[in-house]
Design brief:
By secondary structure, the protein is an alpha+beta fold. It folds into five domains: 71 residues, no CATH class; 193 residues, no CATH class; 193 residues, no CATH class; 171 residues, no CATH class; 205 residues, no CATH class. Helices cover 53% and strands 15% of the residues. A six-stranded mixed beta barrel has the order 3-4-9-6-8-7. It has a six-stranded mixed barrel with strand order 14-15-20-17-19-18. Strands 13-21-12-22 form a four-stranded antiparallel sheet. Helix 15 runs antiparallel to helix 16. The longest helix is centred in the C-terminal third of the chain and has 44 residues. The protein is elongated and about 135 Å long. The two termini are 67 Å apart. 40% of the residues are buried.
């Protein structure tokens, strides 16, 4: 306790120095006056008496300082004095201070912004209760057209019963539904969940209640839980919303609560409803159908259980199901279930991209620090005289190092302060970017950990700059002072450090430019991908007249007639060439995937059953979309319900089953129906045509097997229009939407886009990747070019006498210019060589983001090397010209 009181007393003494020192000085002056009076009484003159009194007391100022040191914090005052000195020194060099602060601000700001995104999406603990014990289960196989699959209700039940290390398993499905309000209809992303979902997820309500097991079962009313974000955005945080009825896809649901802010699924979610509105929990055949896989699973580790234990038990249950239900599994497709920490799933799409950006930002930080270090070394040479004088007046090496450290800290903290503003703007931009990849984008913020990271960067830079300062060891201090007047450019060590920093800047710039070049070429390659259809002047428009729940309840009614009427009226618009009806629009992936088999085609040993996308299309769809038919015929108006079942397949599916044969006339069957479950339908469908492959799964994806069914033969679960015009199809948008709204009032019409816009949307994430990395690369090149020019300019200024002597002895201006260019060229060549080698290794890291471009692409690497060489030569040229203009006469006189 006494130590704390003493420390507080010292702090008060340090903070109240002026008032305390005045009181002390008055007291000491009173004692001094008394002593002077005593000496005068003894016969001394007043002047001599004062001198003797001061000698005996040790000096008034010295006494005040001694007492102050005992009751204050001298180190704090000394640090404050160093800070004041550093600020004064920087004010005397505004150009130097401005360049250093700006350079550091760019590096620190960029790194802070990227780190905040990496932390929010990948590193930050989940807001869920014991989020590290939350798991995601994924079923997948290697079948053609397959990949990740959902689970069926019977499969979920077996995992619940057999995997005891899982303390709870909840189901969820993601559906797009229409929320109708007084202001109109909006499309929202809804999660259909079992009653135990929120308990398993470890989430709580901020308003009302969440779903419970009692909300499961047939006949239970539909209830709705709003996400915190949607509650704020759509309802303004209205606390009176609980208990109100909302209309979803034409049916009513009761709002029962609002859940805390948290990520729920690997995608965006606005609201969560109980499973009673889900088709696969309403249809009895779907509930019992083992191959009708439409639900996903999250689970929580039981107390004391480990992830390895859970994986082993899940693998055992999976193996047992495959053995007990051979007809429900394609064993040749290597079907498997993996158990993944939920946190990893939420960030898996963003992980590679974010670490790429973090690496790019780190490279910019390295270049910024190297450039600042070079500037500081150059300034240090000019300040050597000042440091020598300070040393001669009694300052030791440790005192000088502390002075330089404080000055570098001031520079770094000013850079961090400006970088915070850059980081704030960067976070706003990057949050929008991250939302494309992860539902955790809302957790991105500049919190204490991020600011700690920023301050750590600043401290590291300050320590680096102080470490590079050329000061002698204690034993060599006297010789350093005596030699201070004879040093010209800081010595060989300092020059080597400067040149090494420039080489590092060039090498890192080459690595960044190579990455940017590879990503840019990837984007160009994707833009040149043949989509399989003619994209010019094609407009798409989604008009969903029915939902799965509505179809189960009442069928599709007159939906086909309304779609046909809509098609005919739009076809009558001026400039329209053709209009087709389809269930899924071109270049949009379909979630309807089913196993397919061909008549009289037995699978080979270990061969997987192919999975195909199921799409519906009207007779005019292929012509309107510009999808060529490679064989057979399009659908006809006579392909109606009651007529023979027909199908058009794409080239990928035709090659799988009928390579070397004519597919037309062959028959296929598939494992299911949109709303009915059958292991394999007994209704064979006759192939009447083969369509060209289209890139519906993405421009960078392999073309999946596709089966097109006649739109009129299937239930109208979804629908839209594909409109081809002779010119300026976008001008038809208003008229087409007006017709659709008149025929289907109250229906939400969405995604009214040209096919070119859809293609452009699919490129936007790649474009943003390339833009961000290119921005870092350009910034790095600018800083590196400034670094090259700065070092050579400093070399010229420090060698002015040498250059003057050379010219006096007969060297012409061209020779001097070549000498400087040769000096800069050696740095450039070394940096380029190291950079190209580094780029080859770095390209392997980003290989997963490339398409149509090899990591060691010679065009990219060669182009980057030439670009950097041209920029480097330009940076060398200015100092070389300056050296050539040195006047030997003036130099020799000085």
């Amino acid at each position: 306790m006494s130590r704390i009181l003493a420390a507080l007393a010292r702090l008060r003494g340090a903070l109240g120095r002026d008032r305390g020192d005045d009181e002390l000085r008055e007291e000491l002056e009173s004692h001094l006056d008394m002593e002077i009076a005593e000496y005068v009484r003894r016969g001394m003159s007043p002047l001599e008496a004062r001198r003797q009194a001061l000698l005996s007391s040790g000096g008034l100022t010295h006494a005040v300082e001694a007492v102050h040191d005992q009751r204050g914090l001298p180190w704090m005052e000394s640090l404050g004095a160093d800070v004041k000195y550093a600020l004064r020194a920087l004010r005397r060099s505004p150009a130097f201070a401005g360049v250093v602060v700006l350079t550091l601000a760019l590096g620190i700001g960029a790194n802070t912004a990227i780190f905040s995104v990496v932390r929010g999406v990948l590193l930050k603990p989940l807001p869920h209760r014991e989020g590290d014990r939350l798991l995601y289960m994924r079923q997948s196989n290697d079948a053609p057209g397959g990949a990740s699959m959902a689970f069926s209700v019977p499969e979920v039940a077996e995992y619940r019963a057999g995997a005891k290390s899982l303390g709870g398993i909840a189901e969820f499905s993601s559906w797009s539904i229409t929320h109708t309000t007084d202001e109109g209809a909006v499309r929202i992303q809804a999660g259909l969940v079992t009653g135990n979902y929120f308990e398993v997820m470890g989430l709580s309500a901020v308003l009302g209640r969440l779903t419970q097991p009692s909300d499961d079962g047939v006949g239970v009313p539909a209830v709705m839980v709003l996400t915190h974000e949607y509650w704020q955005k759509r309802f303004g945080g209205d606390s009176g919303l609980v208990g109100q009825q909302v209309t979803l896809d034409g049916t009513s649901a009761t709002v029962i609560g609002v859940v805390q802010p948290a990520p729920f699924f690997p995608g965006r979610v606005d609201a969560l409803l109980n499973m009673v509105v889900s088709p696969h929990h309403v249809s009895a055949m779907m509930v019992h159908g083992r191959t009708h896989r439409m639900t996903e699973m999250v689970a929580r580790l039981a107390p004391g259980a480990s992830l390895e234990q859970a994986r082993a038990e899940v693998a055992a249950v999976t193996q047992r199901m495959h053995a007990d239900h051979k007809d429900a599994y394609d064993l040749g497709a290597n079907a498997r279930v993996t158990v993944i920490p939920f946190k990893e799933v939420l960030g898996e799409r963003a992980r590679l991209t974010l670490w790429l950006l973090m690496g790019a930002a780190a490279f910019v930080m390295i270049i910024s620090a190297a450039n600042v270090a070079n500037l500081t070394l150059m300034r240090g040479v000019r300040r050597e005289h000042e440091l020598v004088v300070r040393a001669a007046l009694g300052a030791g090496v440790s005192r000088l190092r502390r002075l330089l450290l404080v000055e570098n800290l001031v520079l770094a903290l000013l850079g961090a302060l400006c970088g915070a503003g850059i980081a704030l703007g960067g976070v706003r931009l990057l949050t929008t970017f991250a939302a494309r990849y992860s539902p955790r984008a809302g957790e991105i913020q500049l919190d204490g950990v991020v600011f700690g990271f920023m301050l750590s960067l600043s401290l590291a830079v300050a320590l680096l700059l102080s470490f590079l300062a050329v000061l002698p060891r204690e034993g060599h201090f006297a010789s350093w002072i005596l030699a201070g007047a004879h040093r010209l450019s800081g010595g060989l060590r300092k020059q080597r450090v400067q040149r090494g920093l420039v080489v590092a800047q060039i090498a890192v710039s080459v690595v960044l430019l190579a990455g940017a070049g590879l990503l840019t070429r990837t984007m160009i390659q994707l833009g040149n991908v043949e989509t399989g259809l003619r994209t010019e002047e094609v407009l798409t428009m989604e008009v969903p007249l029915n939902t799965p729940a509505q179809l189960l309840a009442r069928g599709d009614g007159d939906s086909h007639q309304r779609y046909e009427r809509m098609r005919q009226e739009i076809r009558a618009l001026p400039g329209v060439i053709e209009v087709g009806v389809g269930g899924t629009m071109p270049l949009r992936a379909s979630s309807m995937l089913f196993d397919v088999k061909a008549e009289n085609k037995a699978l080979g040993v270990g061969e997987a059953i192919p999975r195909a996308e199921m799409r519906t299309a009207g007779p005019e769809y292929f012509r309107a979309a510009g999808i060529p038919l490679l064989a057979g015929r399009p659908f006809l108006s006579t392909d109606q319900r009651g007529s023979g079942k027909v199908v058009i397949i794409n080239k990928t599916l035709a090659d799988h089953f009928f390579r070397g044969e004519d597919p037309v006339g062959k028959r296929l069957a598939w494992s299911g129906d949109i709303l009915r479950f059958t292991p394999f339908t007994t209704e064979w469908r006759t192939v009447v045509g083969v369509a060209a492959n289209t890139q519906d799964g993405g421009l960078d994806a392999k073309s999946r097997p596709v089966m097109f069914m006649p739109f009129a033969q299937e239930m109208a679960i979804a629908g839209g229009m594909v409109i081809r015009a002779d010119s300026n199809v976008a001008a038809l948008t208003t008229a087409a939407v007006r017709i659709a709204r008149r025929i289907a009032p109250g229906t939400l019409i969405e995604n009214v886009l040209t096919v070119s816009q859809i293609k452009d949307q699919s490129l936007s994430p790649r474009r943003l990747n390339a833009l961000l990395v290119s921005s870092f690369g350009i910034l790095a090149v600018i800083i590196a070019a400034v670094g090259i020019a700065g070092v050579l300019a400093f070399s010229v200024s420090s060698r002015t006498t040498e250059i003057g002597i050379r010219m006096s002895l007969g060297a012409d201006r061209g020779r001097v210019q070549r000498m400087i260019l040769r000096e800069g060229g050696s740095l450039l060549v070394t940096g380029l060589a190291l950079g190209v080698v580094g780029a080859f290794y770095a390209a392997r890291v980003i290989q997963g983001l490339l398409f149509g471009v090899a990591p060691n692409d010679p065009v990219t690497m060669g182009g980057v090397a030439l670009l950097m060489a041209a920029i480097g030569i330009g940076a060398c040229w200015i100092p070389a010209m300056r050296a050539a203009r040195v006047d030997p006469a003036i130099t020799m006189r000085s």
